[in-house]
Amino acid sequence: MSEQNKILQTVEVWDLPTRLFHWTLVGLVVFQWWSAESSDSMSYHVWGGYGVLVLVLFRLIWGMVGSETARFGNFIRRPAAMLEYAKALLRGETPHYLGHNPMGGWSIVVMLTLLLVQAGTGLFANDDIMTEGPLYPWVSKATSDWLTTVHRINFNLLLLVVAIHISAVLFYLLVKRENLIHPMLSGRKRLPAEWLAQTPRIVNAWSGLAALLAAGIGVWLLVR
Fold first, then answer.
1. Which one in 11, 45, 95, 106 has a CA-CA gap of 20 to 30 Å to 88?
2. Could you tell me whether strands 8-12 and 188-192 are parallel, antiparallel, or unpaired per DSSP bridges?
3. CATH class of domain segment(s) 3-223
4. Pick from 218, 189, 205: nearest CA to 62
5. How many angstroms separate the CA atoms of 63 and 46, rounded?
């Protein structure tokens, strides 16, 4: 065992609700990509959009009341901190963080913003054939067409951000020898022993369920 491995300790950093959110969202984005390709699956696409909106609203709630590493105040840092982190990477260093590093934190913000735009515009969109979003009657046809265009363009931007995210995960795995996938599966990360004194506060999963129910009720009231 190397000296580096000897001083590493296992720390719980990701709670169950955060991990379930992450992997469920991955599956839903893939499903939405598939279901948008055929008019026969558009009804499923609409329901998938509701699911994405529920998850995004849940994450916004959880970013305020969830575990320490899930809170926006924990990982949204000043641009200067992101720049310093990038410089450290260029120097061959890998600064440790309990949760998201400064660059990863801002990528989460960008992705959540794009997902919110995607789900929000989908509520007003139409395909000029037989499918309309539940809030289509609230706007004019011209506005709906414009929002449909935004919906399509935004999805391409979302795919670009997802590709960058996956590339970053592979960079850390193959170049930095830091596995970011396993902690999002197990909830645990190996960090230097001195970090044990900074173990993050983890909120119980029942609170996550309450946040999810609140998000689900909110979406139901919006689209019913």
1. 11
2. antiparallel
3. mainly alpha
4. 205
5. 26
Assess contact for 56 and 115: CB atoms under 8 A: yes
Mean pLDDT of 3-20: 79
pLDDT-derived band at 194 (thresholds 50, 70, 90) equals confident
Beta bridge partners of 188: 12
72 backbone φψ class: left, alpha, beta (φ>0; ψ -120 to 50): alpha
Amino acid present at 173: L
- Cβ–Cβ under 8 Å, residues 154 and 120: no
Domain limits, the chain: 3-223
pLDDT tens-digit map of 128-183: 877 899 999 999 999 999 999 999 999 999 999 999 999 999 999 999 888 999 99
Yes or no: say if 172 and 104 are a contact pair by the CB < 8 Å rule.
no
| Nearest to 162, CA basis, from 118, 206, 221 | 118
pLDDT for 3: 39
